[in-house]
Amino acid sequence: MSQKHSFQAEVAQLLHLVTHSLYSNKEIFVRELVSNASDACDKLRYEALNNSALYEDAPELRVRIAIDKKARTLTISDNGIGMSAQEAIDHLGTIAKSGTKDFMSKLGADQQADASAQGQLIGQFGVGFYSGFIVADKITVESRRAGLKPEEGVRWTSGGTGDFEVEAITRAERGTSVILHLREDAEEYLNAWQIKTIIGKYSDHIALPIQMRKEEWKDSEEEGKPGEMVTTDEWETVNKASALWTRAKKDITKEEYESFYQGISHDYEAPLAWSHNRVEGSTEYTQLLYVPAKAPYDLWNRDKKGGLKLYVKRVFIMDEAEALLPSYLRFVKGVVDSADLPLNVSRELLQESRDVRAIRDGNTKRVLTLLENLAKHDVPAADASEEDKSDAGKYSKFYAEFGTVLKEGLGEDFANRERLAKLLRYASTTSDTATVSLADYKARMKEGQEAIYYITADTLAAAKNSPQLEVFKKKGIEVLLMTERVDEWALSHLNEFDGTPLQSVAKGAVDLGKLQDEAEKKAAEEAAETFKPVLAKLKEALKDKAEDVRVTTRLVDSPACLVVKDGEVSNQLARLLKQAGQKAPDSKPILEVNPEHALVKKLDGSVHFHDLAQILFDQALLAEGGLPEDPAAYVKRVNALLV
């Protein structure tokens, strides 16, 4: 007796989007259903490590695809772990993935978007089963979980609308069969050659045999009639059915590497670069690591699990083994196949294993070496080889996508901090684009310059126009412009580069050392002495806002600016912490004034001294991207002076 169930509301909405938005990229359903079948076999292999009886009488795992032209059905079967009746209801009627809503918004947001690009979203969000409704007006799933009795099988049926039916059946074979009842306009998928072509494109790398009925040419018995291809009862394997990473690099083509990446990542673009190595020594493993060309939509989603596929002696263990790479390399995709880890390894054991730490360190160094090579050949030399020239511009592309997350490594990976520092790129007062490395900066430092200067701000425009840069511009001293939220935190873990200290121009008193001549120093000292009475009055007027008020030499055109003491949290970071709902250290900035500016000179003897002092402070705050505590009072003071 069958039971009718309603789809979860999100599934019903999802099915509508799938059938309407992805119709021009129909073939992806083969990739997704074959991938699901392969995963089911991997899960059986893993569970059978502790219970070999789950194999029953069929230890050879495989995926089979059958075509019935008369019934207009395409069936994708596996002899993997299978499903119980409750699992069929849970897995096929609801979606537990946290990214489902994001998936649907992305899928429906732009109907003009490239269809193939939209198609890849299905696999990324883990809802690949529903892609079958792109070509089918009805899907029947028959399954039995390994270990259950034949009469405990289940049949799940749906037309892809608002509900589905579930009934008990007797199924001798464990595993799952997905039967697609094809629409009239999906006739091409009843062609065996077409299905084989799609498997070759998307699923050739799958280590399990994917089998189809063999076809043979048969001449017509009637004279004058042409022969035809006839399906036999013999099954043949239509993919390579060998783990790509176990093959020698010389035997793998560029296209095969790219196809494998697209299969494991569900990315429609080819990877930017990859590294394939067999590591031998105290810990033996094979690594195949890919750097994507584009950042995934959920790179900054804290709930998203990342990591590599983990195999032990070619047995699939885990899909997202986060312990195999540090967090700041979470964008890397690929496979690690260990010869030393136990087959029953768990996520908890991964965190504690010495072998895993060795693999993690090896993977990290391999990725950094790959990035260093890309950076080295980003602008190839005139005599560079053709291979090196093919890497031109790749590091710039990588950095535009992943530079921000790479900076996290400064605070997370002490052992590789120096290597990471060399990979960072910034804009500067000589370049609006993030192309300046710390090594580039140091190579063109002025004679007598003793620090690498930088400034942090919300935007490039705010950084470029900061009053704190005025003396540096006047003297032609390059300053790095840092405009990402992670910059301030990251640089708190990087005090120097190649022996040269990094100095924020917004911290401490400006000290240009040998770059400031004696006449300038003397003039500054005299100005500070002459200005003492005014400074004293400013300190009193601003005692609730500023820790100190002092004369500065860093300003040329502006009347004032705000700085903090060395070692304190900058005003920029304090604002970011507050915006994130975190508590910022309770400290006051220092107001530095330019004694040569007309507004500052006007302070001496002014009847509006208190208002001018408040305006001076608030304008300095505005210039660095902050807001006055009382914007209305600021406007009122300015208006009063304008009348």
From TrEMBL:
ATP binds at residues 32, 36, 78, 83, 97-99, 124-129, 176, 347. InterPro entries: HATPase_C_sf, HATPase_dom, HSP90_C, Hsp90_fam, Hsp90_N, Ribosomal_Su5_D2-typ_SF. It comes from the Bacteria. Residues 1-347 are annotated as: A. It holds the Pfam family HSP90. SMART domains: HATPase_c (SM00387). It is found in: Cytoplasm. Residues 576-643 are annotated as: C. CDD domains: HATPase_Hsp90-like (cd16927). GO terms for cellular component: cytoplasm. Keywords: ATP-binding, Chaperone, Cytoplasm, Nucleotide-binding, Stress response. The keyword DNA-binding does not apply. GO terms for molecular function: ATP binding; ATP hydrolysis activity; ATP-dependent protein folding chaperone; unfolded protein binding. Residues 25-186 form the Histidine kinase/HSP90-like ATPase domain. Belongs to the heat shock protein 90 family. Homodimer. NCBIfam families: PRK05218.1. Molecular chaperone. Has ATPase activity. This is Chaperone protein HtpG. It comes from Hylemonella gracilis.
